[in-house]
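Thread: sanity check for a docking pose with zinc ion

Original post by kr_44:
Hi all, I'm comparing my docking run against an independent structure prediction. Below are the sequence and the ligand SMILES. Could someone generate the full complex and paste the structure tokens? I mainly care about where the ligand ends up relative to the chain.
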Amino acid sequence: MVKIDVLFHGFPGKASNTFLGWSTIVLLRREKRLCLVDTGGHGARLWLLQALKDRGLHPNDVDSVFLTHLHFDHIANVSLFPRAMFYLGQVEWEYANTVEDPVVQEGVLPLLRAFKKTLLKKDGEEVLPGVSFLLTPGHTPGSASLLVDEGIKTAISGDAIKNRVELATGNVGMTQAAEVSRKSVEKVKALAARVLPGHDCALRLEGGRVVPEGDNTITITLPDGITIGGGNVVDLRLDR
Ligand SMILES: [Zn+2]
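Reply from moderator J.T.:
Ran it for you. Here is the predicted complex with zinc ion included:
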């Protein structure tokens, strides 16, 4: 059985002057195999290393890395895993290498050219036993998800579905093709009972309802003497 371990929960917030880019990082374990799904943004680098360390792991222990797509907030830490086999969709790879998309982290592309890679083409191709590739385009032409069978079918969707609102409504923001994205959301809903989105906590599908699992609170601490709204700590809590 595959075990899903969320190392870093994505967060759907934006700031007024930047895109936070806090994206979900997942570790899949099956027997001795360790597969990371996405590597997060650069800001997550120390947290990712710590999360691995907390589990008694070194980046070299990760034998494979699946990339849902090639935007900067999902691939900034590719360099930590030079020994891994990288899995990604062929369409996404070709897209990132031929189309100028400022959100693709181009500095990582030369690394990915040098690293071991398996380019996936069609639904059902296996990344690990019990873990299969699913094309979910829209956000980018080659955006892809993984379908994981851990008793309950879970889709790790990257930014094909970024958050609970997109899963509930099918209205996907920051997409290159809204109708294509909507179809991808429907495809995931037809196959999975649980979704780990690119920028939110785990979500369960219960009779058409989207139910968040667990908490998704982030605390921002400001230096003493700097205040916002009368306090020096701001809690960002998602409404359920
Ligand atoms: Zn993202």
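Residues 3-214 form a domain with the Metallo-beta-lactamase; Chain A fold (CATH 3.60.15.10). Hope that helps with the comparison, let us know if your pose agrees.
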